């Protein structure tokens, strides 16, 4: 049985002209480390869920990516993080939104799935649950990165918000991380984590933690993780739409994702991308933006990381 892991680290206006060779190498290294973490679980007979979560933890711990440690600043100068997981075998799902100081929000989302009767916990309630479960809380300094702080300072005090970008005036980079996996048993899973938008206000939540919008998995169809302008992904219920096109229109993974990414989202100016796998280990990594931090590793020897179109 073919097994596969795929990851993304955000999409958007990511241009080679704005990237130093050193920074590009660091992004690629982070993506490869995430792939390796997930793949080592798969090749030892582990589950798709464990592999997807392990890959996302690596990206959450990497300050380059807008999730976990590298999360952007909100309007109040805080870090509010969202995450979700879904298991294709039994449709079990867990999510958290608006959580602070949690080192690995993806682990908390998984705990919601495994330890509660609920799908989503938010804010203070999620924090209380995390304390009960013995989660690691980190101080504000852990989440501080100078380039995120500078990004926020540019718009502090205004009502503007900004989709994450790492270099001034390079346009939009939609900072989310995610992983999808298919294991030896033919089970699939998806995991997504994000720090949201710079200078976001009013407790804004995007698509990442919303099951069916930014994250979805069903063994009958696909496991997908989305990255992009979350509001638009919510409006088209992007993740579930890929699954529906496979289930009801008999499309394959690539064609279903292509219809959502390059037709339905484009029609409403929704920029971003989706990564997906099916239960046969097939994968697709599609985006309608200038670039998407992405990678895939399969049991038949493929190992690729890429950034640009």
UniProtKB/TrEMBL annotation:
Binding site for substrate: 204-207, 227-230
Alphabetically ordered keywords of this record: Autocatalytic cleavage, Hydrolase, Protease
An example Gene Ontology biological process: proteolysis
Keyword Cytoplasm carried by entry: no
Matching InterPro entries: Ntn_hydrolases_N, Peptidase_T2
Domain of life: Bacteria
Coiled coil regions in record: none
Gene3D superfamilies: (Glycosyl)asparaginase
Site (Cleavage): 175-176
Gene Ontology MF term list: hydrolase activity, acting on carbon-nitrogen (but not peptide) bonds, in linear amides; peptidase activity
Active-site residues, record numbering mapped to chain: 176
Pfam families listed in its UniProt record: Asparaginase_2
Protein's name in the database: Isoaspartyl peptidase
